[in-house]
Amino acid sequence: MSTVISVAGLKKSYGQTHAVNGIDLEISRGEIFALLGPNGAGKTTTVEILEGFRNRDAGEVRVLDFDPATKGSAAQSWRDRIGIVLQSTEDAGDLTVFESVSHFSKYYKSPKNPREVIELVGLTEKADSLGRTLSGGQRRRLDVALGIIGSPELIFLDEPTTGFDPEARRAFWTLIRDLRDEGATILLTTHYLDEAEALADRVAVINHGQIVEISTPEHLGGRATSLATVSWREGGVTRFEKSENPTALVAQLATRFGGEVPELSVKRASLEDIYLEMIGGAHE
Amino acid sequence: MSKPTALSIGLQRGGLEIRQFMRQRESVVFTMLFPLILLAIFGSVFSNEIAEGVTFSQYFVAGMIASGLVNTGFQQLAIMIPMERDFGTLKRLRGTPMPASSYFIGKSILVTVSMLIQVFLLLAAGVAFFGVNLPTTADKWLILLALLVLGSACSTILGIAFSNVPKSGRGASAVVSPVVIVLQFFSGVFFIFTDLPQWMQQVAAIFPLKWMTQGARSVFLPDTFAAREVAGSWETGRTFAIIGAWLVVGLIWAIRSFKWERR
Q1: B200/B194 Cα distance (integer angstroms)
Q2: Collapsed DSSP state (helix, strand, coil) of residue B170
Q3: What DSSP state is assigned to residue A96?
Q4: Which residue has better confidence, A160 or B208?
Q5: Residue B45 has pLDDT above 70, yes or no
Q6: What is the largest CA-CA distance in chain B?
Q7: Are the C-beta atoms of A272 and A193 separated by less than 8 Å?
């Protein structure tokens, strides 16, 4: 598989603050890669360096075999191959969805058909509505439409589903998977762990400007092999036990209770538990 | 498909800018009709002749045409661009292959169209209701044309440059409008320039609006009135030189300071 993004030793400071303090990343073609981290962890700075919006202080960065810090017409041909969906925008309120999308298609060498893109993001019924009349979720889908109109090989999605209702999120996830199936590589930043879990092939957790771990969502933080917690009710209190062999423990309990174990549950750490532990715990 | 050029995208952007502008009814009305309301008020209040065959309305129309250059260029852009910066419009555009020049071509088209509408409305209202005389010689029309082209370009560039001064889109109007209004008072738009205190005249002479109004007077007032100007003549050469100099200053300022993102 060819490498789409490669980052080595990336650093960026603002005054005394080391926003990004030595990040290494390799993202392959066709991957959906999620960047997770608390606010101020360095996610946005990293992504904005990759998008060419910010200059770096140190490190090697290649995006589609191009240094994003390059200016001029070479950067324009590079931008023709990427699509950026920024965090909440509220521009073009006085243009219809179709006007915006078809205008943006003029910027690219080989754009998709505007009508088809509007259909793809589920805004066909709103195609002739002004931007300012759209709901938050519809607005976000317009952002995505504008980000993918140029048939990008690489798509940056910054907090794409903030403000979506559950149904809209599911539809959105399907859309992202479809784009990947068409061959696009996707770099996603998100606050939602279920989103990373549902979409991402690999996840990087970033904190204090450094990568804590890169893994698949299933294996992050040793999640797949972590101890399971078995809990049940006994003598009026809820009891917990961590176990490597939860099945054996449950069998034991079943024997002891002679059948049904009161309020039995067996749980593995959720992605959220692992994540919170990794970033130093928002645990009380 | 072949690569779109900066010019072709710029023209498309121009069309889009005008469409968006026309859909903001309040701002269309404010920008286009407010000068006409002023004209109606000043024309009715000061109906006297300020010199042989020159009514105040005629003096005022010349000033308002010069103001129109400032309103449609400097004021419009210095308020609109910070808002676009806040809304993320600029950052989004920066993330596409659109050449930066296309954005500015689009803005120039917007300014040119709104400026032409503005000037046309002022002249039409001036002629219809306030007995304003249009220029009768080709020379004067040529000076008017040069003044509109150079003045509007200067105003556009300065508006782009000044768009970095307001801290936010919401505050832009509060920063920009007073600058324009004070300059209008100082530059002899609302009063006869030579009646203003000396120091005000000298301050005004630093800025381009004073020269735009003087240039407009040289077109709309009879040549006999030139004797009543500060220098006793129209100073046409100096007028264009100073507006041109501001254009260069604005260009350097804009190139050095323009930001696509709010920081």
Answers
A1: 10
A2: helix
A3: B
A4: B208
A5: yes
A6: 65
A7: yes
The reply to whether ipTM tops 0.95 is: no
User: What pLDDT band is residue A169 in, cutting at 50, 70 and 90?
Assistant: confident
Answer whether A86 sits within 8 Å of B92, measured CB to CB.
yes
Three-class HEC string of A30-81: CCEEEEECCCCCCHHHHHHHHCCCCCCCEEEEEECCCCCCCCCHHHHHHHCC
A216-271 tens-digit pLDDT:
888 887 777 777 888 898 888 888 888 888 888 898 888 988 888 888 988 877 77
Q: Quick check: A84 and B23 CB within 8 A?
A: no
Task: Give the residue-averaged pLDDT of B217-222.
Answer: 89
The count of C-alpha atoms lying within 13 angstroms of the C-alpha of B258, restricted to the half-sphere facing its C-beta, is 22
State what percent of residues in chain A have pLDDT above 70.
97
Q: Which residues of A touch B96 (CB under 8 A)?
A: 79, 84, 104, 107-108, 150
CA–CA separation, B99 and A72 (whole Å):
9
Give the number of other Cβ atoms within 10 Å of residue A46's Cβ.
Answer: 28
pLDDT at A1: 57
Question: In a 3-state reduction of DSSP, which class is residue A206?
Answer: strand
The edge-to-edge listing of strands for the beta sheet with A228-234 is A237-243, A228-234, A265-267
DSSP-based three-state secondary structure for A159:
coil
Q: Which residues, in sequence order, are bridge partners of residue A37?
A: none
Mean pLDDT of chain B: 89
- A152 φ, ψ (degrees, to nearest 5): -70, 150
Question: Which of residues B231 and B144 earns the better pLDDT score?
Answer: B144
In the numeric block, which tokens belong to residue A112? 């998709």
Task: Determine, for residues B96 and A103 on separate chains, whether the beta-carbon distance falls below 8 Å.
Answer: no
What is the least distance, in Å, from the CA of A169 to any CA of chain B? 23
pLDDT tier, A282 (very low <50, low <70, confident <90, very high otherwise):
very low
Write out residues 127-186 of B within 8 Å (CB-CB) of A. none
Q: Which residue of A has its CA nearest to B80?
A: A91
Look at B96 and A108 and tell me if their CB atoms are within 8 Å.
Answer: yes
| B98:A107 CB<8 A | yes
CA–centroid distance for B157 within its chain: 11
pLDDT at A283: 41
